């Protein structure tokens, strides 16, 4: 049996095409493969249905064939970018899925908090490292972050994406960016009204998010931090807390 046939990946949901709503690939048509399970539990996580073990009966162990069938069905067989997110997708054995997609001309981006490094990071087209600021309640292991960079081995395009809620988060983002001056840095205002996992279309305070984004723009410009890019979660502006978009 080939490696791809044996591999089982724990999947929470597969959806799209939609647009990538965040960071370096914002606006790009994308199919999302969201894996189930995370080694973190951020206070404000907007995807708890892929994190909280109470929802694990909704996570399916799927073969590469099964996932690939769904990705090709959703994309009509036309190559596009597949975003691997979660939960922490780095927990899952995603190498064979990436190899399968590349054989068919698809590209792969990965979203991770950079707490777990895998050798298949070098096979990605884009690696988004999103270390978590103090407001998340999580502590960053910078050795693990460095391992992620080592495994990527300068092959994929790499970007830093940091959620900012407050002054402490902003200071964290500046420190993180100063540590890795070669990485392009994307700042995104936190959504303080993330959806509860059992609801797929919960109320949202867009005005509050936009206020925070204006504050963030003011900080960045006043500080002369001219390398930072400030972006909203575009899908959140368009569809609120809706799931699967
Ligand atoms: C749901 S996470 C999944 C991937 C990975 N676990 C991570 O955190 O990078 C995808 C992105 O959403 C961001 N995110 C999660 N909750 C958020 C919130 N309430 N407001 C803004 N961004 C959020 C994360 O920081 C991350 O960049
Ligand atoms: N449109 C859209 N863009 C996204 N960018 C990152 C997402 C994620 O949850 O990982 C996400 C998502 O769930 N939807
Ligand atoms: S690391 Fe990502 S998926 Fe995990 S709890 Fe934090 S935001 Fe949610
Ligand atoms: Mg999301």
Automatic annotation (TrEMBL):
What top-level branch of life does the organism fall under?
Answer: Bacteria
Swiss-Prot/TrEMBL catalytic activity: 6-carboxy-5,6,7,8-tetrahydropterin + H(+) = 7-carboxy-7-carbaguanine + NH4(+)
Q: How is the cofactor bound?
A: Binds 1 [4Fe-4S] cluster. The cluster is coordinated with 3 cysteines and an exchangeable S-adenosyl-L-methionine.
Class of enzymatic activity (EC top level)? lyase
Please report the stretch or stretches of sequence annotated as the Radical SAM core domain. Answer: 25-241
* Positions bound to S-adenosyl-L-methionine: 44-46, 87, 130-132
Record's NCBIfam families? Answer: Bsubt_queE (TIGR03365)
Its UniProt pathway annotation is:
Purine metabolism; 7-cyano-7-deazaguanine biosynthesis
Q: Which GO terms describe its biological process?
A: tRNA queuosine(34) biosynthetic process
SUPFAM superfamilies registered for this protein in UniProt: Radical SAM enzymes
How it assembles, according to the record, is: Homodimer.
This chain's protein is named 7-carboxy-7-deazaguanine synthase
Where Mg(2+) binds, per the record, is at 47
Question: What does the similarity note say?
Answer: Belongs to the radical SAM superfamily. 7-carboxy-7-deazaguanine synthase family.
Could you say which EC number(s) this protein's record lists?
A: 4.3.99.3
- One MF term from GO for this chain? 4 iron, 4 sulfur cluster binding
């Amino acid at each position: 049996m080939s490696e791809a046939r044996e591999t089982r990946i724990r999947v929470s949901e597969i959806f799209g095409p939609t647009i990538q709503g965040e960071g370096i690939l914002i606006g790009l048509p994308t199919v999302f493969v969201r894996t189930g399970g995370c080694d973190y539990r951020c206070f404000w996580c907007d995807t708890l249905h892929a994190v909280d073990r109470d929802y694990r009966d909704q996570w399916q162990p799927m073969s590469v064939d099964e996932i690939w069938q769904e990705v090709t069905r959703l994309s009509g067989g036309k190559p596009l970018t597949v975003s691997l997110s979660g939960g922490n997708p780095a927990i899952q054995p995603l190498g064979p899925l990436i190899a399968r997609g590349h054989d068919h001309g698809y590209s792969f981006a990965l979203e991770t908090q950079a707490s777990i490094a895998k050798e298949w990071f070098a096979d990605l087209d884009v690696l988004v490292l999103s270390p978590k600021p103090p407001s998340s309640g999580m502590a960053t292991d910078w050795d693990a972050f460095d391992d992620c960079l080592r495994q990527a081995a300068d092959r994929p395009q790499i970007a830093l994406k940091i959620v900012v809620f407050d002054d402490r988060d902003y200071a964290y983002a500046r420190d993180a960016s100063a540590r890795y001056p070669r990485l392009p840095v994307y700042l995104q205002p936190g959504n303080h009204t993330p959806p509860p996992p059992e609801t797929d279309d919960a109320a949202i305070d867009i005005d509050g998010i936009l206020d925070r984004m204006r504050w963030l723009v003011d900080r960045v410009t006043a500080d002369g931090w001219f390398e930072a890019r400030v972006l909203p979660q575009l899908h959140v502006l368009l569809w609120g807390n809706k799931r699967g978009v």
